[in-house]
Design goal:
This protein is of the alpha/beta class. The chain has one domain (about 1-175): Rossmann fold (3-Layer(aba) Sandwich). Helix content is about 35%, strand content about 20%. It has five helices and eight strands. It has helices at about 15-25, 55-65, 80-90, 115-130, 155-175, and strands spanning about 1-10, 30-35, 65-75, 105-110, 135, 140, 150, 155. Strands 1, 2, 3, 4, 5 and 6 form a six-stranded parallel β-sheet that branches. Strands 7-8 form a two-stranded antiparallel ribbon. A hairpin with a 2-residue loop joins strand 7 (about 150) and strand 8. It is globular, with a radius of gyration of 15 Å. The structure holds flavin mononucleotide. Pfam families: FMN_red.
Length: about 180
């Protein structure tokens, strides 16, 4: 079965982005094996550190995934440091990392009206810099995301339908 790795840019228990990631993972459970990476367990990036087992396991998971799905909030007009840290670990060697050629799908959320559009563009720019293959389609941006979560489940039917369709398209590109 297709194997997807989800990366979420928020650690908080009531995270709307993680709720969206989890709800999307549940929706495609019959078609894909999905895992939410524990990027909070990664140490801060340090080029002097080699052989860290947590880092090695994460990089291996990115490398083994058929596709990587990012679901992240916007922090201060960009992506959270947590997520950038994880990306940086998996980005070496430059232009030859596990992200080279990797199919990636991006969804952003925000507590406000803009849905994380600035984080979305920053993340795609970063992925381009690693020669990842960013899925090109209408952008998945989720405004007022906290109001769309109940008991850890993302509940907005319109956004789930839209994001679910993009995810289906993305799944269709994997292996091609
Ligand atoms: C440090 C920090 C910076 C933030 N910066 C932005 C921002 O630039 N734009 C925005 O729309 N929301 C911003 N927010 C609000 C987040 O969009 C909101 O808290 C969102 O719910 C976080 O995602 P989560 O629910 O997955 O934790 C910020 C929140 C934090 C904690």
């Amino acid at each position: 079965m297709t194997n997807l790795l989800f990366l979420c840019g928020s650690l908080r228990a009531a995270s709307s982005s993680r709720a969206l990631a989890q709800t999307l993972m549940d929706r495609i459970a019959d078609r894909a094996d999905s895992e939410l990476a524990d990027i909070g367990a990664l140490p801060h990036y340090n080029a002097d550190v080699e052989g860290d087992p947590t880092v090695a396991a994460f990089v291996e998971k990115v490398g083994a995934a058929d596709g990587v799905v990012f679901v992240t909030p916007e922090y201060n007009y960009s992506i959270p440091g947590l997520l950038k840290n994880a990306i940086d670990w998996a980005s070496r060697p430059a232009f030859e990392s596990v992200f080279k050629g990797k199919r990636c799908l991006v969804a952003t959320v925000s507590g406000g009206a803009t849905g994380g559009v600035r984080a979305q563009s920053h993340l795609k720019y970063t992925l381009n810099g690693m020669l990842a293959r960013v899925h090109l389609d209408k952008e998945i941006v989720v405004p007022f995301a906290n109001a769309k979560v109940e008991d850890g489940t993302f509940t907005d039917a319109d956004i789930l339908s839209f994001a679910g369709a993009q995810l289906d398209d993305f799944l269709g590109t994997l292996g091609t």
